[in-house]
Amino acid sequence: MPRVAVLIVLACLALPTAALAVNVPGSQTVNGLPPFVPEVALGYAASVISAIPAPTGLAFGPGGPDLYATDLVGDVWRVPLVWTPAGPVVAGPPSMPATGFSSPQGLVATDGALFVSDSHPGAENARTDGRVTRVDSDGTKTVVVDGIPNGRHNTNHLRVGPDGRMYIANGNPNDNGRDGGDADVFPYSGALLSVDAQEVSARPAVLHWRDDAGNAIPADQVAGHARNADFTSKVHVLAHGFRNVYGIAFDSAGRAYTGMNGADDPSSQDAFFTVAPGSDYGFPFCYNVGVPGAVGEGVSVAPNPVVFPDHDCSGTPAASALLGWHVCATGIDIAPASFGRFGGSAFVGECGPFYQDDVNKILDDPMHATYDLGHKVARVALDADGTPTSVTDFMLNVLPTDVLFGPDGAMYVADGAVVWRVAALPVQP
Fold first, then answer.
1. Which whole number is the average pLDDT over 342-352?
2. Which of 66, 69, 201, 388 is the most buried (most CB within 10 A)?
3. pLDDT tens digits for range 202-216
């Protein structure tokens, strides 16, 4: 989500926490609560795990199955849990093991510590850089990756991959390759990156923006500059050519998936990708086009008509599915097989539009073909090869900023002021 929208986002996330219950489609509304109460698909039930103000990222661990969350104002929260056969029970009030971050978007537990992603003014440039900070059990904070090129967007969610590496979803620095931010720094802008947490904890990876003589390195030369050889050796690129790429998830076969926020000018859809390692998905030169919900051959690639109308996009891979205009795709995870009838599906949080123009268009014409309200968790059905076959609604009336499956196989959703647990109901004999 763009930085200029942070205050609007915070307002949207600060929803009332009273009267929390569930309205399941196909049944009566529980206790006659108003329609903004979350709805989940038939066969599932939602309950509140904890009230966290404006949560942005979720993780379990380290050193135990407690729930951790970042929030927009810069804190890390810990919710102590006791696990029972019926699910987790909160064992006490939330605590705050770390604070002082700049709008952190993600965290993960690995190598016996928490790792938090956020952004800050660069020490060697006039840009905003992303960073990843290690938080040890005693509260010690150590920046382990720094200088990641973003700007308009953030260094977003973190996940641990099946190879044990820590994966970083890094947004790009501008809207469309020219407007609304700094220049792209390929291949690190709009990219899925990975590091060895132990390696960077011992010796941080820092992308430098000035040479040994103190001269500024042009953006198009940063990645290949000799001073950045150490960063290049430690920070691997899984794939790039994304805009505001927000999260990364892995299925049981080790395949990677991600979600991306589309551009504002020209208006383009949020998209879902089954990631092919080493791929360049073309942004900002190429855009994905098709109707919302399109999958497979229903998605094609076209040149960016505003900035690069003559670019050849014929060899650029298309997104795997389209999610709609300005739905604000944020969190993403893959359900385990135990997650009821939707086990093995991908789930994408869509926190919805935050610009007044978008909201006005929705209010003026709810059926407008190029705008979608979001405010839901969408399900992307996957076949045996990890290819999307459909996009449908799963959970409505929420402002999800992260979606994560827990050690119990249930879905955890960071919402406006709470964290929800969504579990499959037992099958009746």
1. 95
2. 69
3. 999 999 999 999 999
Distances (CA, A) of 214 to 149, 224, 269: 19, 17, 41
pLDDT for 363 equals: 65
CA angle (173 as vertex; 167, 176 as ends), nearest 5: 115
- pLDDT tens digit string along 36-48? 579 999 999 999 9
- The percent of the chain in helix, strand and coil, each rounded to the nearest 5, is 10, 40, 50
Cα separation, 72 vs 6, in Å, equals: 8
Q: Name the CA dihedral angle for 103, 105, 108, 111, rounded to a multiple of 10 degrees.
A: -50
CA distance 269 to 370: 8
Contact yes or no for 103/399 (Cβ under 8 A): no
Domain ranges of the chain: 3-424
Q: How many CB atoms are closer than 10 A to CB 169?
A: 29
Record the pTM. 0.90
pLDDT digits (tens, 9 = 90+) for 124-136: 998 999 999 999 9
CATH superfamily, region 3-424 = TolB, C-terminal domain (2.120.10.30)
Are 378 and 392 contacting, i.e. CB atoms less than 8 angstroms apart? yes
Distance from C-alpha of 316 to C-alpha of 286, rounded to nearest angstrom: 8
Q: CA dihedral defined by 377, 243, 248, 412, rounded to 10 degrees?
A: -30
Q: Count of H helices and E strands in the chain? A: 4, 30
d(CA 237, CA 277): 8
pLDDT digits (tens, 9 = 90+) for 226-268: 999 999 999 999 999 999 999 999 999 999 999 999 998 888 8
Q: Using an 8 Å Cβ cutoff, are 419 and 67 in contact?
A: yes
- Residue 300: CB atoms within 10 Å: 13
Dihedral, CA of residue 169, residue 5, residue 308 and residue 313, to nearest 10: 40
- The single residue listed with the structure tokens 């132990």 is 198
CA–CA gap between residue 50 and residue 68 (Å, rounded):
11
- The two three-digit tokens of residue 167, written as one number: 């994966």
Query: If pLDDT is split at 50, 70 and 90, which confidence band does 22 have?
Result: very low
